[in-house]
C-alpha cells in the first residue's frame, strides 16, 4: 500500500532523527509488535464513506464560502 | 476565500489509512474510530487555510483527530469503554498469518494502558513521528512524551511477561476468533 510505504519511510526517518531506534526499534519485541499492530490497522481497507464524504465537501464548498 | 485544492483533497484521501489506524489506537473501537476520522476530515476541510503547505500534513491531521477525540471524551464525561465495542475493534483487524496469538495478547496489553501513554507509544513507535512532532501533536513538552513512552514500554513488558508466557503458540483460543466482518 502506498501509504504504508510512506509510514515506513517516515518511521525510518523519525528513528534517524530522534534515536528512538534502540528502545522501540526492530530489535525490541515491543517495537516489533507495535509496528505489526499498527501496520495491520493501516492496511485495513478504507470504507467508501470517506471518499464520498470528501466529494460531498467538495461539491458543497462553493456555496458555503460565500462571504 | 481560497478554494480547497485538488492536491489537498488527494492528500487527505492518502492520509485516511493512517488516520484510521491512529483513531483505532485511541478509541480501541472500530466504529468510534471511523466516526472520529469523519469528524477529522470535515474539520480539516473547513480549516484547510490554516494548513501551511510544505509542513507535515499528517501531523496536522493527527493533531485535529486527537483534539476531537479528547473533546468528545470530555463531553461524554469519560465514559468507560464498553466491552462490546472493544470486541468490535478486535475483530475488525485482519489477523496476521503468523504470530496471531501474541499479537492478540499485545492488543490486550495496549488496551490496558492509559490513553496518554498509549498515544505516545503509538506516535513514536508505530506512526513514525519524532519526539518533537509527537509533542506538538499532543500539545506537551518533549520530555513528557519521552517519559510517557518509557512508562508505556515498561508497562507493556510487565503485562506481556505476566499474562503471555504460556499462551504463545497455536491453541483453541485462536480458533474462537473467527468471523472477521468484511470491511
Span between termini of chain A: 40 Å
Structural class of chain B: mainly alpha
Amount of beta strand of chain B: under 5%
CATH topology of the largest domain in chain B: Rna Polymerase Sigma Factor, Chain: A
Q: What would CATH call the homologous superfamily of the largest domain in chain B? A: RNA polymerase sigma factor, region 2, helix turn helix motif
Approximately what portion of the residues of chain A adopt beta-strand conformation? Answer: under 5%
Please report the first level of CATH classification, the CATH class of the largest domain in chain B: Mainly Alpha
Based on the structure given, which CATH architecture of the largest domain in chain B is correct?
Orthogonal Bundle
Helix content of chain A: over 70%
Counted up, domains of chain B total 2
Helicity range of chain B: 55-70%
Short description:
Chain A is mainly alpha-helical and 67 residues long.
Task: Describe what you observe in this structure.
The complex is a heterodimer of chains A (67) and B (183). Chain A is mostly helical and 67 residues long. Chain A has one domain (2-64). In chain A, 76% of the residues lie in helices and 0% in strands. Chain A is built from 4 helices and no strands. Chain A has helices at 2-18, 21-24, 29-42, 49-64. Mean pLDDT of chain A is 73; it is low at 11-21 and 63-67. By secondary structure, chain B is mainly alpha-helical. Chain B folds into 2 domains: 7-93, RNA polymerase sigma factor, region 2, helix turn helix motif (Rna Polymerase Sigma Factor, Chain: A); 98-167, Orthogonal Bundle (Arc Repressor Mutant, subunit A). In chain B, helix 2 (30-46) crosses helix 3, helix 5 (100-111) packs across helix 8 and helix 6 packs across helix 8 (142-164). The chains are: A mainly alpha (67), B mainly alpha (183). Chains A and B meet through helix 1, helix 3 and helix 4 of A and helix 1, helix 2, helix 5, helix 6 and helix 7 of B.
